[in-house]
Structures are given as structure tokens and as C-alpha cells.
Amino acid sequence: MIDTILDSPLSQWLRHDSKESDHIVISSRIRFARNFDGLLFTNRNDQVSLEKVNAISRGLLQPLKDADGHQYSNISLEQLSQYERAVLVEKHLMSPALEEKLPYRSLVVSDDASIVIMVNEEDHLRIQSMAPGLSLQQAYDHAVQIDKAIEAKHPYAFDERFGYLTACPTNVGTGLRASVMLHLPALTMSGRITRLVRSIVQLGYSVRGLYGEGSDALGNIYQISNQRTMGISEESTIEQLLKIVEGIIAEERKSRQALIHNDKESLEDVLWRSYGVLQYARRVSGKEALTKLSDIQLGVDLGILPDWGNDTFNELVAITRPNFLCKYAGSEELSDLERDSYRAKVIRQKLSQ
């Protein structure tokens, strides 16, 4: 299973949701932070507890299959190269924080990668459920299904007053982080994104870049998630986040129409220039590629540029990341210039199709 996961540019949950005619919403994610009762938190670095948690995770494969019918695998991070672990980070299957923590660290992954459980990251388990488009409820229902299957076998650390106990106080309570990944080129292009982000943060939500906390919004891709986990139910958290995201989607659509109304020729010039650069360039950096791929997807959504298929943007965002690009090329030894050349070649080939 690991070879399939490493080799495939797109997980099923990154495929375009046909319910949406545009490509503003990329995916939805639910994450539960969970710790087992009676074992020290991961940050204590207690070898006995770490080994015990890792052993428990290896025994979860059959109960998880019984819960949702999917095949599950346990992937030991110690058996992967640093390069392979970096690919998993680029594919949003594990956090950068887990990449360098090796002893007793692993991933439990479903056959379609819609469920990924990080073992011994900040907490004993980080249960992640992903779904395409704006599908928070679908992702939540799946996460609850998996969460209950695990808790039935191994009780969690739970307090009647505080809720689920976690290594970081900001996760205590529900332990739930719900997030939606959005492509917001028009809000960025118009300069309205700064004020919008400020408003979202004031409402108690976080706005992060392509790879979560501390990352940039490469390709105009943003992740919106809740911060509050105490004094609010899981259902209310999802309901409120949905309202926030629906408001952002409406603002992005208004910004797109405003760009067309105010100066359509200027917008067309920007979008066609990006298309022309990627169609003919012989070297393209990762950052430039994402910027111009974002422009092209905006042009496709607005009917200005030729349609290039529902999943091409998400696919090229994945392929053009530095580590996956080396994997795609079949060589871990590409220099920066060789990567830029190969990235340009891959994009040219996709556009020519």
C-alpha cells in the first residue's frame, strides 16, 4: 500500500467534488487528538509508553476494517527514507512535526487514504478523516466511526469536567480540529484577503497556508480551521465553520465577478500570460509554478482559459512539490536546476493534453 500512496499524485479526497462548478473548495478534514488512559503523553518521551502506543496501533487494523470496510496498513516511519517521509508531508498525510520523530512513530492508513492516523505525534493518536470539496459532515461521520472503534478497544484519557485530555491545552475538550482547504485567487488578487483573514481570526478561527501552521498560502491555497475545543460541542464546531466557509466562498465569487467587471482585459492579460509562461517555459520554480497554476485554474473557472479537466490543478499542485517531483522523475538526486527543468516539462506536457 505504501508504494501506491507514495506514487499516486492524488488521493481520492483530493479529486474535485462535482457538486461545485468552480474549484474554490479543495477538501475538508476532521482531526481528533486522542490519548490512551494510563499512558504518559508523547512529549514525555517515555520509551515504554511510546512502544506501548505503537503496539496498540498495530493491533487496530482489523477493528478499523470491521468499522468501515476499508483495508488498513501500519506504516513504520523508521522504515521510510527521509525523502519518502517528506513526500507524505507534501501529500498532507502527515504533519511536518512527525517527519523527524522516528522511534515508535507510524501511520495507520486506509486503502483510499481517506483515514490517516498519526501515531505518537504530539498526542498518542491524531485521527484524520479527509473528504473532497465542502464535505465536513461526511468527514466528521467517518472520523467518529473510526474514533468509536478505537475507544471500544482502548479507553481514552478523559475527564468529566474537561473532556478529552491532550498534550497541548489548546486541544483539551473535544480534541476536534475541523478544517477546509480553499483556493482563493480572486480575493488575493484584489487585495481583499488581508482584511478577510483579519475578520476570520477575530471570530476565533485560524487561517493557515498550504501545509498548515507556519506555512505560506502557496498557490493562493488557504486552510480555515476552528481554534476553540472547550465549551462547544463537535456538532456546533462544524456548523459554525460551515457558515464561515460559505461566507468566504461567497466573497471569493463576488471578487471574481468584480475583477471581470472592473477591468476584464487586464484580468485576461494576467491569466493568459501565466498560461503562456507555463506552456513554453523551460525552467519553473516551485513557487512560480503554484502562482501561475492558480491563475490558470481561475481562468478555467471563469471560462477565459481552455478547460483542462476537473483534477488537473490539484494534480499539478501535488506533482510539482519538490520531493514528489523527484519521486515522479524516478530520481532522488535531482539538483535544484534539474527539478526546475523537470517541473516545467511536466507542466508543459499536461497543458498540451
From TrEMBL:
Entry annotated with the keyword Nucleotide-binding: yes
Reaction catalysed by this enzyme: L-arginyl-[protein] + ATP = N(omega)-phospho-L-arginyl-[protein] + ADP + H(+)
Keyword Transferase: yes
Species annotation: Veillonella denticariosi JCM 15641
Molecular function in Gene Ontology: ATP binding; creatine kinase activity; protein arginine kinase activity
Coiled coil location: none
InterPro entries per record: Arg_Kinase (IPR023660), ATP-guanido_PTrfase (IPR000749), ATP-guanido_PTrfase_AS (IPR022415), ATP-guanido_PTrfase_cat (IPR022414), Gln_synth/guanido_kin_cat_dom (IPR014746)
SUPFAM superfamilies xrefs: Glutamine synthetase/guanido kinase
Protein's UniProt name: Protein-arginine kinase
Record motif RDXXRA motif of the pArg binding pocket involved in allosteric regulation, residues: 339-344
Activity regulation as described: Appears to be allosterically activated by the binding of pArg-containing polypeptides to the pArg-binding pocket localized in the C-terminal domain of McsB.
Enzyme's top EC category: transferase
Role summary: Catalyzes the specific phosphorylation of arginine residues in proteins.
One record GO biological process: phosphocreatine biosynthetic process
Domain Phosphagen kinase C-terminal: 24-255
Record key words, sorted: Allosteric enzyme, ATP-binding, Kinase, Nucleotide-binding, Transferase
HAMAP family: Prot_Arg_kinase
Residues holding ATP: 27-31, 92, 126, 177-181, 208-213
